[in-house]
Specification:
The complex is a heterodimer. By secondary structure, chain A is mostly helical. Chain A is 78% helix and 0% strand. Chain A has a single domain (24-206), classed as Cytochrome c oxidase, subunit III, four-helix bundle (Four Helix Bundle (Hemerythrin (Met), subunit A)), CATH 1.20.120.80. Chain A has helices spanning 2-7, 25-53, 61-65, 68-92, 96-126, 139-172, 176-206. Chain B is an all-alpha fold. Chain B folds into two domains: 1-63; 65-109. Chain B has helices spanning 11-30, 35-57, 65-108. The chains are: A mainly alpha, B mainly alpha. At the A-B interface, α2, α4 and α7 of A face α1, α2 and α3 of B.
């Protein structure tokens, strides 16, 4: 029965046929993708924790990285999550124009985030933090820093492209309701990227 | 938190919770507390923020329980992974200390 429903394509699915996410199969698909992606991030952070716990000369991240700029970046990502839910809320109310504006703000927030990260990276590289060594201690400190924040930064970059393509789709479809589902699914991805940054900020900068 | 039929919680309230928790996180690291206490507080605050985002922004609170299980699985796997990695890591630490002890002892004679 469920296979038959999947063959119907992108239309609305009968509630009885998809008990996990009654609205659409795409939503379930995104959740499963995100669960897999979360294992990827979980693995990186767990590996980071284990390397740090067993290292004799791990620098205190706070002293090397600083948190002023990163705190602003964290705040920016939380704000972009709010504009994302606002976009969905306005789309649900049938106001396509406002929904498009908020989607644009969300993508803009992501783009500023990546720019600030590039700025931060260039400063840290200039001060001697490299992927294969640094003046403060364990060389794995730099390796794991660039790997984890870089992996997250790529997710934000991909998210900005994803949001812009969704924005184009909303603009092209005359009925706001026709793009509601796609915007909600894009929102799931975007909030996930925010959620991961909350973890990265805590474990790699504050702890 | 009122659960509306149209699944739209008070997003601005969630935003303020997240902003305040972020400020608390930054305040915690300046507090004169034991290193372990600070670590435990930071982990708890991060998990709290992540839960807020997942529950309200990602609407997990309004989804079926099965989807919640899908969402929690990675957390369980990542937590288990820490315990998989730590024994090996501590074995390396112990070996390093043994080597240090072995190399410093003859120097004393």
């Amino acid at each position: 029965m469920s296979q038959a429903a999947a063959m119907h394509g992108h239309g609305a699915v009968e509630p009885a046929e998809s008990p996990v996410t009654p609205e659409s199969w795409g939503k379930l698909g995104m959740w499963i993708f995100l669960a897999g992606d979360a294992v990827g991030f979980g693995t990186l952070l767990a590996g980071y924790g284990a390397m740090r716990a067993t290292s004799g000369d791990w620098p205190r991240p706070f002293d090397v990285l600083g948190i002023n700029l990163t705190a602003i970046m964290t705040f920016l990502l939380i704000c972009s999550s709010v504009t994302m839910v606002k976009a969905l809320e306005w789309l649900g109310k049938g106001d396509k124009g406002r929904a498009q504006n908020y989607l644009f703000y969300t993508a803009l927030g992501g783009a500023i985030f990546v720019s600030l990260q590039a700025y931060e990276w260039s400063h840290l590289i200039h001060r001697g933090l490299h992927i294969n060594g640094n003046p403060w201690g364990a060389s794995l400190f730099g390796t794991s820093f660039f790997l984890v924040t870089g992996f997250h930064g790529l997710h934000v970059t991909g998210g900005v492209i994803y949001l812009l393509s969704i924005l184009r789709m909303v603009a092209r479809r005359p009925l706001p309701a026709a793009s509601y589902n796609a915007v909600e699914i894009a929102g799931l991805y975007w909030h996930f990227v925010d959620l991961v940054w909350i973890m990265v900020f805590t474990f790699m900068y504050l702890l | 938190m009122a659960t509306t039929e149209h699944k739209h919680p008070n997003y601005m309230a969630i935003f303020w919770y997240l902003a305040i928790l972020t400020v608390v996180e930054i305040a915690v690291i300046y507090m004169p507390l034991a290193k372990f206490t600070i670590g435990a507080l930071l982990c708890a605050l991060a998990l709290g923020k992540a839960t807020l985002v997942a529950m309200y922004f990602m609407h997990l609170k309004f989804e079926t329980r099965t989807l919640g299980l899908v969402a929690v699985t990675p957390l369980v796997i990542a937590t288990l992974l820490v315990f998989v990695l730590l024994p090996d890591g501590f074995a390396v630490v112990k070996r390093t200390m043994d080597v240090k002890a072995a190399t410093t002892e003859p120097a004393k004679h």
